[in-house]
From TrEMBL:
Keyword Lyase: no
Family per similarity comment: Belongs to the 3-oxoacid CoA-transferase subunit A family.
Record-given protein name: CoA transferase subunit A
Coiled coil: none
Keywords: Transferase
Length: 260
């Protein structure tokens, strides 16, 4: 039951070229940076990644993307990642963009053993009708487009059939975890990390604080250890290394201004 692995390098040692990965994180929150860096140092490539976004500010999945290690991305947000956009438009990267809620449910469904489900999100658009550019040819044309999906009516409303997602591995980051793999996520990092963890056949969690079994109140567990195969305890320095995507401060009040 002790799922702790001494190092991140050992935890990802069996991830091969061409593997599919579900990766947690929301923006810069809850991104498994240490595990991603270990994958980068191993030199694996041709990866198929399922994640909300593909890294930002040269961190997270952006490290693998910039090195040309990612072949396909299934996600819901490109954001301000200029290298992501460049590779996509140049035909170097295959991209399946789907609604964010659909992505979350596809991951959860895969982890719950549900092969497919119906949702109204995307009905009447290229999400359902097909034709979304998955890969460009580098000259502005579409080399590969999404296929049409089954649409069915229930009680007068149309729904599109979406497949659950299962991946070879999942990489997640938790605020706290025990040796059995029970995990607790902090705030926004809970958005996609539990879902990504459920979708992986082999799930690897880096935890900011490792505790003994029983130290986490069962009612406080966000993801039970049944979904987690390996746990890596971060050093205090690794746990504290968190970037801020956009720092916003309030402009100082003009000299002599009186607040009412």
């Amino acid at each position: 039951m002790n799922k702790v692995v001494p190092t991140a390098a050992e935890a990802v040692a069996d991830v091969p070229d061409g593997a599919t990965l579900a990766v947690g994180g929301f923006g810069l929150s809850g991104v498994p940076n240490v595990l991603i860096q270990a994958l980068y140092e191993r030199g694996v490539g041709g990866l198929g990644v399922v994640s909300n976004n593909c890294g930002a500010l040269d961190s997270g999945l952006a490290v693998l993307l910039a090195a040309g290690r990612i072949a396909r991305v299934t996600g819901s947000y490109i954001g301000a990642n200029k290298e992501f956009a460049r590779q996509y438009l140049a035909g170097e990267l295959e991209v399946e963009m789907i609604p964010q809620g659909t992505l979350a449910e596809r991951l959860r469904a895969g982890g719950a053993g549900i092969p497919a489900f119906y949702t109204p999100a995307g009905v009447g658009t290229q999400v359902a009708d097909g034709g979304l550019p998955w890969r460009y040819d580098g000259s502005g044309g579409v080399a590969l487009a999404s296929p049409p999906k089954e649409v069915r009516e229930f009680d007068g409303t149309e729904y599109v059939l979406e497949r659950g997602i299962r991946t070879d591995f999942a990489l997640v980051r938790a605020a706290k975890g025990d040796r059995h793999g029970n995990l607790v996520f902090g705030k926004s990092s809970r958005n996609f990390n539990p879902l990504a963890a459920m979708a992986g056949r082999v799930t690897i969690a880096e935890v900011e604080e490792l505790v003994e079994p029983g130290a986490i109140d069962p009612d406080a567990v966000h993801l039970p250890g049944i979904f987690v195969q390996r746990v890596v305890a971060l050093t205090p320095e690794q746990a504290a290394d968190k970037q801020i995507e956009r720092r916003t401060v309030t402009a100082p009040a003009a000299r002599g201004t009186v607040n009412g």
